[in-house]
Design brief:
Length: 525
């Protein structure tokens, strides 16, 4: 990335975050306190007492993350809790509900609650313990989307400020600062590193195709002008045989009975030959004398010949019934969705010009290009993981909505691959022609520590992940990776089980590390 590109990208990220930060600062100035109690982070605008030692834990519970900063507790003194709540599912700030701190122990039970502040995700809680001693502290949240409880553990309520200054709190230093306001305003997400079964297999390239007879193209049989009411549009569903429009032959077009009859006989002969060729190749395939691809090509040729025959037959019927000067019907060769339309009513078209492309996407085929070196493992295929750009991953397993059709019997001379063919029910979003990565699983492997592949960053040839060590603190880790299983990658070193790794927005954390413009502390809320 060039220095200018780097600067522009980070400026955009920083600008988004600072917009929220400035609003927070205004609100906090009015309230008379900064980022939580945050002693050790920034001075209290409205307090003359020295900063007390402060805690800044990050807790996870009930599908939520709590990052909270607060000073040690002192009898009769206010401790401000800056609580940041995030929904882990989408890494978005909690925008509603009520947060409550509950102290149990010395002084009985004490509760302090608040609604979400004007800054989404931030709950400002101010507590004043009444009795010195030991308390159990927890923070709860209740809202329309559920509830969560975070155990802050045992805390000491000190009798006075002087004694509180001697409190021992965990020290946290170093790391990369990436504030909550930034996380909430950019694409961002985290996931735990976890142990999971990693299947044996290999990666390959794959593409989506229509099933034989599931794709059709309508071409102009003569030069002329298109006409019709309700001319189909892209995305419209049509049925086989449905009239899509008509074409009025150009003046001088030969539509004599003899010419039309000759075209009909030619189309019929071509269809007969295509059927015979299909039957012959099918028999040879059963004897393993030809590759399966030859049979599939014969199926497509037969379908095309049949479509041409129907057009020729329609023209013949129209001419023989005395309607030779009227528009020739354009009908759908297959049922499906219209994926391309070339022309419209009143448009002049040339003979042979493609007018409509129709695809049946209810069932599709996946052709996986298996590398030559992996061809010997095709007999043990258990399932295929496939992901097209912008689509959710798809797992194809025989008997579970998919079936294996077979594998090629020859290595492609240029690609050096063997095709593996599967047929499956479309989950509703895949398109014919889509291509992407596939992972062919050939067996069940042992359990291993793994992270999503999206967490891995390639930095100068090194595999790097960014671990969220705290709510706003991150660590850059160089990792050693092992096997891959779909969108999960085995991690051999560099990350521990249950650590949170950044899966979306890791490049932004990297920018934060190299920018030097983001403060580690003192950001007002």
């Amino acid at each position: 990335m060039s220095r200018m590109s780097h600067s522009l990208t980070w400026s955009l990220v920083l600008g988004i975050a600072l917009a929220g930060g400035l609003a927070c600062k205004k609100n906090e100035a009015e309230a008379g306190h900064d980022h939580g109690a945050a002693a050790g982070h920034a001075g209290h605008a409205g307090h003359e007492a020295p900063d007390r030692p402060a805690f800044a834990p990050t807790l996870y519970a009930d599908g939520m993350e709590l990052f909270v900063e607060y000073a040690v507790l002192v009898k009769g003194e206010v401790s401000n809790f800056g609580s940041h709540l995030t929904h882990l599912e989408d890494a978005q700030a909690v925008k509603d509900g009520k947060a409550e701190i509950i102290l149990t122990g010395a002084g009985g039970e004490q509760r302090f609650s608040t609604e979400v502040s004007s800054t989404p995700g931030i709950f400002r809680l101010a507590i004043k313990p009444t009795t010195a001693g030991e308390v159990q502290a927890k923070i709860t949240w209740k809202g329309p989307k559920g509830q969560a409880t975070f155990d802050l553990g045992k805390h000491t309520v000190y009798p006075d400020l002087a004694s509180s200054m001697k409190a021992q709190v965990p020290e946290v230093s170093g790391g990369i600062s990436f504030l909550k306001e930034q996380q909430w305003n950019v694409p961002y997400g985290i996931t735990r590193a976890q142990s999971r079964p990693m299947a044996d297999g290999f990666e390959a390239y794959a593409s989506v195709m229509a099933v034989p007879g599931g794709e059709g193209r309508v071409v102009a049989s003569v030069a002329g002008r298109l006409e019709g009411n309700g001319f189909p549009s892209i995305g419209q569903m049509v049925k086989q045989g449905q009239r899509l429009g008509g074409i009025v032959p150009k003046a001088g077009a030969d539509l004599s009975l003899g010419t039309v009859q000759l075209d009909f006989e030619r189309a019929k002969l071509k269809l007969d030959q295509a059927k015979a060729n299909h039957t012959r190749l099918k028999g040879l395939l059963e004897q393993e004398a030809v590759p399966r691809r030859r049979v599939e090509e014969a199926v497509r040729e037969e379908a095309l010949a049949e479509a041409e025959f129907k057009v020729a037959q329609a023209r013949k019927d129209e001419v023989t019934t005395g309607r030779g000067g009227m528009a020739l019907a354009l009908t759908a060769p297959v049922s499906g969705v219209v994926s391309a339309v070339n022309g419209g009513p009143g448009i002049q078209v040339a003979e042979g010009q493609e007018l409509f492309h129709i695809v049946d996407t209810r069932r599709l085929r996946l052709e996986v290009q298996v590398p030559e070196a992996q061809a010997g493992r095709l007999a043990k295929v258990a399932s295929v993981w496939f992901q097209a750009p912008g689509q959710q991953p798809l797992v194809l397993e025989s008997g579970k909505g998919a079936r294996f059709l077979g594998q090629g019997g020859a290595i492609h001379p240029e690609r050096r691959t063997v095709p593996l063919l599967m047929e499956f029910g479309n989950p509703g979003t895949l398109k014919v022609g889509a291509s992407g990565r596939a992972f062919v699983r050939t067996g069940t492997g042992a359990s291993a520590l793994a992270v999503p592949a999206s967490a891995l960053q390639d930095e100068d040839g090194l595999a790097v992940v960014y671990v969220q060590a705290g709510g706003e603190r991150f660590e850059r880790r160089i990792v050693r990776v092992g096997a891959r299983d779909g969108d999960w990658v085995q991690v051999l070193s560099g990350v521990q089980k249950d650590e949170w790794v950044v899966t979306t927005g890791a490049h932004l954390v990297r920018l934060a590390a190299s920018s030097g413009k983001v403060p580690e502390h003192g950001h007002a809320h």
